[in-house]
Specification:
This protein is mainly α. The chain is built from 8 helices and 3 strands. It has a 3-stranded antiparallel beta sheet with strand order 1-3-2. It starts with a helix and ends with a helix.
């Protein structure tokens, strides 16, 4: 199948999702201050995207769900490490998080989109859905990415706890 056919066969919502995610990634490169609720959007999108695939993919079984959970657990640990090193600050009164500019979110978004797109194409054109390995791999990737963004968001949430509780739970002051 040609690249043109793949691009034409891609549902329009995928391109809108890519545009939105890229806008968030480019914005993260600039740094800035945002309310905690707004920072929940990207983790929610990636979690929903992964879980939707688990529910809608006919070849997804318990092993795909397990791969998603394992990926999410690994991703949460990775996300926590990334966020703890980010130099974030919080304003408990305004309920905002200030993050320095970073290419990490954009890189994660691009890697995730490319891998999910490739896996989606493989599942669609080669009928790889009959090959459980592709489906399980997709579950693992989805869980890993959702976990990374969720782990980062977890650190943002924990930063709103009183300073002594945060220092005890995180091992150092954020």
């Amino acid at each position: 199948m040609s690249i043109e056919a793949i691009l034409r066969g891609t549902p329009i919502w995928v391109w809108f999702l890519l545009a939105y995610l890229l806008s968030r990634g480019f914005k993260a490169m600039q740094g800035g201050t945002a309310p905690l609720g707004k920072l929940a959007i990207v983790p929610a999108v990636f979690t929903a995207w992964g879980l939707l695939h688990l529910v809608k993919e006919p070849a997804a079984g318990w092993n795909t769900g397990l791969a998603w959970v394992v990926g999410a657990a690994l991703g949460i640990g990775t996300g926590v490490l990334l966020a703890r090193r980010s130099g974030l600050t919080v304003d408990r009164v305004q309920k905002t998080v200030t993050l320095p500019g970073s290419i990490v979110p954009l890189a994660l978004i691009l890697l995730t989109f490319a891998s999910k797109f490739w896996l989606g194409v493989e599942l669609a054109i080669t009928h790889a859905g009959t090959d459980a390995l592709y489906v399980v791999l997709d579950g693992l990737v989805s869980g890993l990415v959702a976990g990374i963004f969720a782990g980062r968001f977890l650190v943002y949430c924990l930063a709103f706890r009183p300073a002594s509780a945060t220092a005890e739970s995180m091992g150092k002051r954020i």
